[in-house]
Amino acid sequence: MNRKIQMTKRCIREALFECLKEKDINKITISSLCEKSDINRSTFYNAI
């Protein structure tokens, strides 16, 4: 796995933890994760 994808995954993970502080896991959307991690949806789907 290249370093860029690893960094993206780390950003997504950190965004998830931030969202979990604010709301229930069932209420977290891909859009909110992308917004918090400052990536677009296609980048999100390419990284996972």
According to DSSP, the number of beta strands is 0
The coarse silhouette is: globular
Percent of sequence in beta strands: under 5%
Helix content: over 70%
CATH topology: Arc Repressor Mutant, subunit A
Do you know the CATH architecture?
Orthogonal Bundle
User: What is the radius of gyration?
Assistant: 10 Å
Provide the residue-averaged pLDDT: 93
Sequence stretches where pLDDT stays below 50 over 5 or more residues: none
* Main β-sheet description: none
Structural classification: mainly alpha
Question: What is the straight-line distance between the termini?
Answer: 11 Å
Number of helices: 3
Order of SSEs: HHH
Q: Return the CATH class.
A: Mainly Alpha
Task: List descriptors.
3 helices; mainly alpha; single chain
How are the secondary structure elements laid out?
Layout: H1 3-22, H2 30-37, H3 41-47
Helix pairs in contact: 1-2, 1-3
InterPro entries: Homeodomain-like_sf
Organism: Holdemanella porci
Protein name: TetR/AcrR family transcriptional regulator
